[in-house]
Amino acid sequence: MPRPTLLVDPADYPLDKVLLDQEGCKGLIPQRFEFLQVTSVLASLVEENIIVVHRHLDDDEFWVRGHIPGRPIFPGVLMVEGMAQVAALQSRLQYDSDLDKFIGFGGVDRIRFRSMVVPGDDILIVGHMKKHDNNRGFLRWEGQILKTDGTLVADGEIVGMAF
User: Fold this and answer.
1) CATH number of the CATH domain containing 144
2) pLDDT greater than 70 at residue 1
3) Does 67 participate in catalysis according to the annotation?
4) Per-residue pLDDT averaged across 29-58, rounded?
5) Closest CA to 129 of 83, 87, 82
6) Mean of per-residue pLDDT scores for the chain
7) If 0-12 CB within 10 Å is exposed, 13-18 middle and 19+ buried, where does residue 88 land?
8) What are the strands of the beta sheet with 152-162, ordered from one edge?
9) Spatial contact of 162 and 103, defined as CB atoms under 8 Å apart
């Protein structure tokens, strides 16, 4: 399978230019503590239908000790969770989704892992809404995870349902 074209150039999104910090993200999605997979929103580009989110991976994250001792790698399942959280953030920020409804997983499609992420890395989770229906409580989001040097880490689609 050929590598997809990157949705953004990470150089265009410095990590210190924050649109919404982690506390602001908590006002839009319910995940907390070690399960919150976003550090900040760097851009929410309505006209371009793009969201760019930063995630810093600390050296003391809960998975570091046991997910390949001596060679910790960021688990793929947490990458997918991060993509789902970003899809929900874009739904809230750009589509005015009802904050009283929980947006949960409806499915994942065509997820591919292409590179490793390790403690200390900074990644960008970027994507765009392919379909969004507030009335039905449905979304289909396509996204990528990139290292700040432009290395593609993962890509795929998230399906979300409002409950």
Assistant:
1) 3.10.129.10
2) no
3) yes
4) 97
5) 87
6) 95
7) buried
8) 40-45, 50-56, 122-133, 138-147, 152-162, 103-113
9) yes
The predicted model gives 33-60 an average pLDDT of: 97
Domain span holding position 73: 10-162
Q: In the chain, what percentage of residues exceed pLDDT 70?
A: 99
- Rounded to 10 degrees, the C-alpha dihedral 125/30/98/146 comes to 0
Which residue stretches of the chain are H helix?
22-26, 76-95
* Cβ–Cβ < 8 Å for 128, 142: yes
- Of the residues 54, 56, 67, 128, only one is catalytic, namely 67
Specify the number of domains making up the chain: 1
Q: Taking 70 as the threshold, does the pLDDT of residue 7 lie above it?
A: yes
Do 141 and 105 form a contact (C-beta atoms < 8 A)? no
pLDDT at 77 over 90: yes
In one-letter notation, the amino acid at residue 33 is F
